[in-house]
Amino acid sequence: MTTIAKITPADRDDWLELWRGYLAFYEASVADDVTESTFARIVADEELHGAMARDAEGRAVGIVHWLSHPATWTASTYTYLEDLFVAPGTRGGGVGRALIEHVKSCAEGEGSHKVYWLTHETNATARALYDKVATSTGFVHYEIPLGR
Hints:
Layout: E1 3-6, H1 12-25, H2 32-44, E2 48-54, E3 60-70, E4 77-86, H3 95-109, E5 114-116, H4 124-133
Parallel strand pairs: 4-5
Antiparallel strand pairs: 1-2, 2-3, 3-4
């Protein structure tokens, strides 16, 4: 059975392993100070939130991070699911779905209007799940990197 709980300071090592796995999956890197800041903000649980999935033996098998923000098309907020990662050996077992459901429940609890997220178009495994639990909007994502 999978359990989902808020990320705490005691989860740091497990979180770091999953975070590094997530970055490796996307062939990305983040400076160590940014990783430390990210973990601290998740643990503070003020603007940035995080939860960890553990299997029946207590092993960390997934993480999710999200934030809520004001929106112009509703009087409430939108919830952005920013990061979702499930350890490769446990994919397809319901962990991703449980993490999404956790974020959905938290968003509903705070009165958010919707939960949304992005994924890479080549991430077929994740998209198979997303197509079951959400609706693809057809929007194309653009971004402008800023000089930081």
